Every structure is written in structure tokens, then in C-alpha cells.
Amino acid sequence: MLRSKAMLPVLLLIFAILLPGMLFAGKLEPIKPVAAPRFNPMSAEKVELGKKIFFDRRLSGDGTMSCATCHIPEMAFSDGEAISLNYPTTRNWRNAPTLINLAYNRYLFHDGRAESMEDQALFPILSAFEMNQNLDFLEEELRSEPEYRKEFQKVFGTDDTTRERIALAIAAFERTLVSQNAPLDRFLEGDHTALSEPAQKGLAIFTGKGKCTECHYGMNLIDDKFHALNVPEHPEFNKDPRVAATRRFVAKFYNYEAFRTLQEDPGRYLITKKDEDWRAFKTPTLREIARTGPYMHNGFFETLDQVIDFFDQGGGSGTIALKPLGLSREEKQYLKAFLLEGLAGEPIAFQFPRIP
């Protein structure tokens, strides 16, 4: 009986934290193992091959860039830049998202133009302003290395280094990049000491007054949807003619007729051509958020404090996706404590490969 009474405050606290989130939106869930698609089953050999290709600079046209140039292991597989790094003399126009937990996403890229990791893998390699590589040439470059041919034979039953198999291998490696055993996971699994008191108060705000779980829920804290929050265009990059050239190039590629006069990032609209998708971007995971700034699709916000203020004020000018929250200064600090403390998983065991 005494034990039951002692547990009551703890149970009430957990109920107070989790109930608001259940009322507002989807519930939070601890991370579960990744499920690979049937057409690309996992194996240790395939993962190792994909890792080598991921770090191979031959993936870029001039041999200076690999996937790891913009997705750095020590930076949660992002690059710490407002907008992603680029091929020489060009500029990118969007932020490099983390690859951690990519396997749980339904859509890939900020605009959701890819729906599988295998499709996603080749986009940056082909991109004129990212890696600028010809895939026919890449196939021959890898085929010229006996070690690669041997590994392709072992993994795929053929030494033919096709782009499709390159993508399969890269995706297999990327599926191993999972944020696991974060304090939030342990808390949801019953370890009520996993989060500090400030972080628990922040979790209560996250699921309650902050309404974060309207879009950030489930295992990966995403809703697999696109929202027009009207994040301001980054003033530094908006004046850069190289960024403007990239913006026009992408818009023209996706058959946007007014590409010549485009002054902002249309977001998901370029993919769907639906008015409601103008300037809409995919909800990002919040896992490992302490290591993945700057934030938003264009890196407009350098700090989490700025992001929290943005959501507290109801998003950018003209948005109807958000409403002001009215968080106090103390509540914002609790929310920040949860984001920084609760969503940081254990370090991913990782060794850099030897490139053939």
C-alpha cells in the first residue's frame, strides 16, 4: 500500500505529460528497429559497400566531393551550414538535413520529391549544383576498381556496377544511421528518471501548450506532411546571384513557367503544382536536433531559441498553418531543455571505410 502511494505522484506526472499530447495529436513512441524493403534486403556486406561508396569522392564530377561532404558523421550527418555545400562556382539553395533516422521517413528532401532512400541516393550525385556527376561515367569509374567489382559480385551476384545497385548499397548503409536509446525513448519505456525535471516540464509543454505533437509525433517525431510556415527567405542568400541561378534552374526543371522572375523558394509546389503547397516544406525530424543547426529548409535560424520564438509567435507573416502560443520565457526554456536533452541518442558506432 505504501509503495502504491509513493508511486502516485510519479504516475500523475506521467499522465499530466502524456495526456495533452494524446488530446492534441499523435502520441510519441520509442524508436523501433528499421525495416528494409523487400527489394533491398540488408546484409553486412551491402552496408559496408554502401559506406565505401558514400565516402568516395569519385561520386562528384571533379572528384572533390562525396556524400559525406554535406553529411558529416560528427555533425549528425548534416553539415552545420545554413545552406548545403555545393559544386565549385555554384551555390546550393537549401539546408542539408540530417540523414539520421532517414529510414523512417515516407518522403525525402525538403520538398518530398523522392519517396524511397534508393531514389534519393542518386539525386545529389546528378545535381548540377551539388555533385555534378554523370551516372554513366560514375558506373565506369567504379567498374575500373577490381575491389569494387569483387564486392558488387559478392553482394549482388554480378560485378556490374550499375547506378541502381549503387543506390541500393548507399541506401542500405544509410538505414543503419539510427538515433537510439535517447532519454525520451527510455522515459516512454518506463524509466522515469531518464529525463531531468526541466526536460519533463518541457515534454509537458511539447505535448500540451506548445502543440508540437500536432506535427511532431510517432517514433521519428514527424507527420510525413508539408506545411507552409512562411519562414523568411535568407537575406544573405537571396542576394547571391548563384543562389538565384540555382532557384531558377530547379524551377525550370520542374516546369514552373515564371522561373525567370522567381524570388522565393516555392517548396513542395514545384512537385505537386498545388496552390496549397506553395512554400510548404516537409516536417523535419527533431531527433538529434542539438547537432543539426542551423534550422529550417534554408537555415534561416541559427539557434533553437530563434526557432522556439518563431513558433511561439505563430510562424511567419501570413501563414495560416500556425497560431501564436503565448509561451512564457520560463516555458520556452523548459521546452528547449527537452529538445536538447531528451532527443539526443547514443553515439552511432562508426568507423571510416578504406576507399578502393
For the termini, the CA-CA separation is 66 Å
The CATH first-level class of the largest domain comes to Mainly Alpha
Structural class: mainly alpha
Q: Can you write the helix and strand succession as a string?
A: HHHHHHHHEHHHEHH
Helix content: 25-40%
Number of strands: 2
In CATH terms, the superfamily of the largest domain is Cytochrome c-like domain
The number of distinct structural domains comes to 3
Strand content: under 5%
Give a short account of the largest sheet.
2 strands, antiparallel
**Radius of gyration (Å):** 22 Å
Structural account:
By secondary structure, this protein is mainly α. It has three domains: 9-31 and 180-230 and 279-342, Cytochrome c-like domain (Cytochrome Bc1 Complex, Chain D, domain 2); 44-174, Cytochrome Bc1 Complex, Chain D, domain 2 (Orthogonal Bundle); 235-277, no CATH class. Helices cover 38% and strands 1% of the residues. The protein contains 13 helices and two strands, in the order ααααααααβαααβαα. It has helices at residues 2-24, 44-54, 117-126, 135-143, 146-156, 163-174, 183-188, 197-207, 235-238, 241-253, 269-272, 304-312, 329-342, and strands at 226-227, 281-282. It has a two-stranded antiparallel ribbon. α1 runs parallel beside α8 and α3 packs across α6. The longest helix has 23 residues, at 2-24. The termini are far apart. The relative contact order is 0.17. Residues 1-18 and 20-24 have low confidence and may be disordered.
